[in-house]
Amino acid sequence: MSIHIHNITKTFGSFNALKNVNLEVKTGELVALLGPSGSGKTTLLRIIAGLEFADEGAGSIEFHGSDVTNRTAYERKAGFVFQNYALFNHMTVAENIAFGLRVMKKPQRPEREDIDKSVTELLRRIALEGYGGRYPSQLSGGQKQRVALARALAVGPQVLLLDEPFGALDAKVRKTLRKWLRQFHDETKVTTLFVTHDQDEAFELADRVVILHEGDVQQVGSPAQLRENPKNEFVADFLDCVMI
Amino acid sequence: MAALIDIHPAKHRTRVRRATAESAWSRWLVISIAVGFMGLMFVLPLVVIFQEAFRKGWEGYVEAFDDRATMHAIWLTLQVAAITVPLNTIFGLAAAWCVSRFWFRGKRLLTSLIELPLWVSPVIAGLIYVLLFGAKGFFGPSLKEHGIKIIFALPGIVLSTIFVTFTFVARVLTPQMEAQGQAEEEAAMTLGANGFQMFWRVTIPKIKWGLLYGIILCNARSMGEFGAVSVVSGHIRNKTNTVPLHIEVLYNEYQFVPAFAVASVLTLLALATLILKTLTTTKRGAA
């Protein structure tokens, strides 16, 4: 599913978090939102998910051509993975993953056995078979991250949004998970947008990278394009840091 | 070194002095003041209550409850608590939800109003309702016209008890909900949960121990409230006397054994509250 963002502006009080942002994410693409902290990347991701709303009358958001600007998060059902995972601590891993299926309305809700089956399948996919009965507090950071991802994927979202997915993990786990996510994306082809402040991560993972600075999109392009043709001083400066 | 610690553990411990540690003498003084004060102010009265209640033995104690007015007072207090506690639970949840989740004009005012019962004398609380709903009060004439009785009746007692106890659930939950944030609720929403499902499946389990703690405190206070209820109740025996008011009546009539026997029921309630409170605090700490 494609995402179209037209002229999105967001202000918090007097602070201009996003200024007239335009962006298009094609179906099946893996796109990184890259920028220093405070550049508005998380705000943009939350607006796409419907957890935050853009300023009234300022632009629109379309999911696969249909306008979702005024739809709530509950209606958009974009898979969202939070920076600190936001797992339900009082539920087991299996219950966490099954949550999205269990809250479905009666006609769509799968049978109990089918839910169990999808949970088992997802646990296998995230290489946590046999962990279904554990509680989040008994998992490591990397494991929690994968459970959060499985929980988001259980409902079969058309869009996957990840906020600093590897931010709280140590370097080694981060590298492994990065590879795993890329592979996972190649298999499933779910349109994915992730936020990061780590240039390496963005360049290694993404098909295209969006560089944000002070609420403005500076440049959009493939890693190679950005490296060869930085559009302005900020991009050049920001990317130079990577090379060293 | 290890052997030395094993042989003289106590001796070794006293040698380790932290920068903030007091001298043994002042530590002793502070501890004995605290323990002595607790003993004098809390433990001793507790002992006296039960001693007086059982002055005429177990039979005397049981006999004290074989009294229509006493049973009515207990029944009335249970009724008041049964109305007050659920209402204040709902109110407390709603208030904590508003304050911890949204920014709105007048939020500060609401937060201070929630604490109002802690710094307003309960007698004033009772008087407010008399001034509003009493025979000569603001709404008095129109209430009389419609035959509604609030003051010197159950509604007045419930109203003033609600006023005195509405702070507890809200005050326990607000800081807890602020600290927990709302990432889990947002996660539930992106997974397609509606507001109702989010509340019951995510929010309530997160706050349940805090909620229980608030409810226990609210219940204890609503059963034990004297001042506010005293103003609005009119002390009508078999009609508007709650347990605390009834104890006073008995005591003033020199019926010491029944007075202390009924008082012991409230004391047991307090002790049970204390135990439950400790349990929920540990649970809350562990959660």
Could you name the key traits of this structure?
heterodimer; A: 244 residues; alpha/beta; 6-stranded mixed sheet; 4-stranded antiparallel sheet; 9 helices; 10 strands; globular; B: 287 residues; MetI-like fold; 2 domains; 80% helix; 0% strand; disordered N terminus
Notes on the structure:
Chain A is an alpha/beta fold and 244 residues long. Helices cover 38% and strands 24% of the residues of chain A. Chain A has helices spanning 41-49, 73-76, 93-102, 112-125, 141-154, 171-188, 199-205, 223-228, 233-243, and strands at residues 3-12, 15-25, 30-34, 60-63, 66-67, 79-81, 159-163, 191-196, 208-213, 216-221. Chain A has a six-stranded mixed beta sheet with strand order 6-7-8-3-9-10, sandwiched between helices. In chain A, strands 2-1-4-5 form a four-stranded antiparallel beta sheet, covered by helices on one side. In chain A, β7 (159-163), α6 (171-188) and β8 (191-196) form a beta-alpha-beta unit. The mean pLDDT of chain A is 88. Helix content of chain B is 80%, strand content 0%. Chain B has two domains: 22-53, no CATH class; 61-280, Orthogonal Bundle (MetI-like fold). Chain B is mainly α. In chain B, α9 (154-165) runs antiparallel to α13 (227-233) and α10 packs antiparallel against α12. Mean pLDDT of chain B is 85; it is low at 1-12. Chains A and B meet through α2 and α5 of A and α11 and α12 of B.
